[in-house]
Amino acid sequence: MPSESGREGAYTLPVMPPATVGPEGAPHIMGGVALAAAIDAMELASGEPILWANIQFLSPTQHAEELHIACQQCGGGQSVGQWMAEANVNGRPTHRISASLGAREPSPAQVFAAMPDVPAPGDCPPSDDTYQFADGSLHDQFEMRIARREPDKGLNAVWVRNAAGFANDAAWLAIISDFFLGGHPQSRGGFSLDANFRFVQSAPAGWVLSVTQMGAMGKGVIHGQAQHFGEDGQLLALSSQTGVLPRIPQG
Fold first, then answer.
1. C or N: which end of the chain has fewer Cβ atoms within 10 Å?
2. Helices H, strands E: what count in the chain?
């Protein structure tokens, strides 16, 4: 929603339980939610669709009641604009975002990535993660089923569906793309340093297959990338992250 400050490019996200993760008594804004809110803000301010966004996670957001986002165009041409945004909680910077928005038309469309052959959602077991989540938090807003899990290869494929029936638009896909940590057992309970999100196309409400390929672990961090496909096999988005490994993995 637009910020009460009335400043152009200023928006406020009221932080309700569905935007948070963490155990009872210690909720914080899920990184993907902050990225989705920043994407929404920049699309509203520019009137253009998102192409790419990067977010850096600067400081904790425990017990935040509002997330304030200020965005502005900082460059670009006639077709594609370069944007930047900053988010804060009570005046403390929490996120820094860079992005490109727009489109050059007409433009031929071709998708090169192919969805791997995995069982359908109905044939996959539900997630067996044992994280502690508060009732009504983000965890209750989606279903997750394990399609493939090969930790020795750094490969993890999960079907994800929004329980509320939201369309798989850029904002919801940005949230899904932040399910990176947990894609390998050693990463469960860690925290993200950044997230890159590249939007290809939206899809109707339904299952999304997120295929995460970890690239490497070392120096206390893990690097990886993911592809996100609709039920019909079409590529919807790509993402990548670097996350800090926990001292003691959870789940």
1. N
2. 2, 13
